[in-house]
Amino acid sequence: MRGQWQEVLEAKKKNPATLEAKITKAEDTVLHIAIYVGQTSFVTSLLDNISQEVCCHILQMQNSKGNTPLHLAAELGNVELCNNIAKRDPKNLISRRNLEGETPLFLAAVHGKRDAFFCLHGHQQSNSGDDDDDQSVNDSLATKNNGDTILHSTISGEHFGLAVQIIGLYPKLVNCVNEDGELPLHILARKPNCFKSSTRMELLQRIIYSCSIVDEFEETDEVHCENAEKSHDHPLNYGTCISLLSLLKCAFKATTTGKDTKADEENNVSRKLEQKQAKKEKRRHRFPPNWEAIIRFLTLTMKALLIILGAGASWIEKIQRKKVKHVLAKQVMDELIQRGSSLYKYEYTFYRGMSTEGVIEKRRMESPILIAAKMGVAEMVDKILETNPVAIHDVDSNNKNVVLLAIENRQPRVYTLLNKKTIIRETAFRQLDNLGNSALHLAATYRSHKPWRVPGAAMQMQWEYKWYKLVKNSMPPNFYERYNKNGQTAKQLFITSHGQLAKEGGKWLTKTSESCSVVAALVATVAFSTSTAIPGGPDQETGIPLLLKKAPFHIFALASLIALCSSVTALVLFLSILTSRFQEKDFAVDLPRKLLLGLTTLFTSIASVLVSFCSGHFFILEDELKVAVYPIYAATCLPVTFFALVQLPLYFDLSLAMFRKVPQRSYKVLSH
Fold it and tell me: Which residues form the PGG domain (predicted)?
């Protein structure tokens, strides 16, 4: 524990049995601790200086969690130790399981240690045959006690690059279910944050996101840690030249030696090239390959300018990592859907489990498309429907299909996607659940969570009503007055379920209007007294202002008039909100519009009062002080500017809500 590893070696020489001693509460041996702290050279030296029998014995010793030294090396991603330990007894050490049924290969995949995973996979493959029995054993090593496979775990841990390669190495795992009856596609469907459709970005973030170029993860043949083939990268334009040189090389060998030394390899290489070429043809490039260097240069230049302007390199890197995750997650999704069986992808699956009474029971699992619709993963819904349109008829235990679940969980992007498909709009939108609720009933039902990305109960109420009207416009007219099993129409259900939210929204609007009306009345008072005053006074004979020809006088007169008119307008608007009936439909357009116009005129009146004050005060200063007074005027405007900046988010939310037809979903709180 003190790091005195030389004394440990001396103690081992005196008594070799000390290597078997469990010296911690977690029942770790010296070898466990050495691997924990990264003593690679010590472990290598120790294993090289003991007999093969003793070495295999101590390498199979487990701690309280059932982990062997190889488990720890794989979990930490120490490739050198994984190779050194695994090669001493590959058959027994790689297949050893801990108390949760995890093999070292499983732990390497769970923690996203790609190099360690391929190292162990290479040893595993070298000690197994090519028949189906050996392959089944290899697949079983990739599964733990609860049925989770390495594919389940890598997707759950969001190690999507490794997940793509696991799908290629273990294709049967795509259709494996755990004890909860979940496929890897179910796990991925519950991760909306890994897809672009469920990620909200501001304008600058979207620009950086679009400028980032991310290539799909390519499956490699790297399965050994020492003898992996090295791929030679070259520009696409040089492919023909390299192929020609390779052909000339083979021809030269054939003519000089009388035989082709690589005849057996050519078939394998050609097959691999055909497979890669087929995958490349499926990909859609946004620009020709020859332009890639130019595009990357322009992208790098854009990022450099953003960093110079203060965007921050770490912030840009965070957006780039987000795009990488989105691209890889979509690639995993495509592979799972293409390789998965239609039985598990699009229909209900029955999972037989043992109940506490020892009776075999059946569980009915939701199909992945239903989970994706509920969580808002529009890419998965679109891909499954593209692969098999029959999936639109999948329903859950409450007889809710994709459309009903998307509407119930307030998923605008999934709803927009489904609404664009004419066939789906004519059939799936007419579905009723077990309680007789149509899509319009579910749109009218308010749930406890706050799905919309707006502050305050009033704005939530506004977008709830917009969501209801949006769904209503996509439904047939005969669904407007349809009754559910409780005898309620969609309109009645909207009024009853949104009653409390309407009260909260009315209270918020009342308090806001009262506060703003007090400020508007104060500004109106000041503006009225200011507008009647004449800087410098009038001419006693003609009554014309003495400073009429001065530019600040005109600014003063115009600003005071604007301040008076805008403050009175704001006061009238806020008073009209206070006298409103606060009905549900009023929150859609009427009340938000009055609040938006009231805030606009209030900000205008405050700014105009400040301008009129500064322009009128300018006349009473000495000429020597007029230059120094500008910083004072600027400092006077700071409190008002700060107040305006604080209110800008609310102002922008009100403005966007007025013009946006489809509400914007918040993905911070998700319904499960």
Answer: 507-619
Give the tokens for residue 619. 């006349």
Give the chain's domains with CATH numbers: 5-145 (1.25.40.20), 389-499 (1.25.40.20), 501-620 (no CATH)
DSSP secondary structure letter of residue 89: S
Both tokens of 157, joined, read: 């841990």
Question: In angstroms, what CA-CA distances link 122 with 93, 206, 237?
Answer: 14, 41, 34
Burial of 266 from C-beta contacts in 10 A (0-12 / 13-18 / 19+): exposed
Residue with structure tokens 């969501």? 467
Is residue 61 within 8 Å of residue 33, measured between CB atoms?
A: no
- pTM beyond 0.90, yes or no: no
Q: How many other CB atoms are there within 10 angstroms of residue 76's CB atom? A: 18
**Closest to 421 (Cα-Cα) out of 385, 395, 390, 396:** 385
**What is the tens place of the pLDDT at every residue in 421-438?**
877 877 888 889 999 999
Burial of 590 (0-12, 13-18, 19+ CB in 10 A): middle
3-state secondary structure at position 365: strand
pLDDT of residue 549: 64
DSSP track, 543-566 = --BTTTTSHHHHHHHHHHHHHHHH
Instruction: Give tens-digit pLDDT for 17-38.
Output: 888 888 889 999 999 999 999 8
Nearest CA among 380, 430, 358 for reference residue 401 = 430
**51 and 14 Cβ atoms separated by less than 8 Å:** no
The distance of Cα 410 from the centroid of its chain, to the nearest Å, equals: 17
Each residue of 133-168: b (16+ CB within 10 Å) or e? eeeeebbebbbbeebbbbbbbbbbebbbbbbbbbbe
Q: What confidence tens digit (pLDDT) does each residue in 106-147 have?
A: 999 999 999 999 999 988 887 765 565 556 656 777 889 888
> Among 10-24, 236-250, 533-547, which is the least confidently predicted range?
236-250
- Cα separation, 149 vs 145, in Å, equals 9
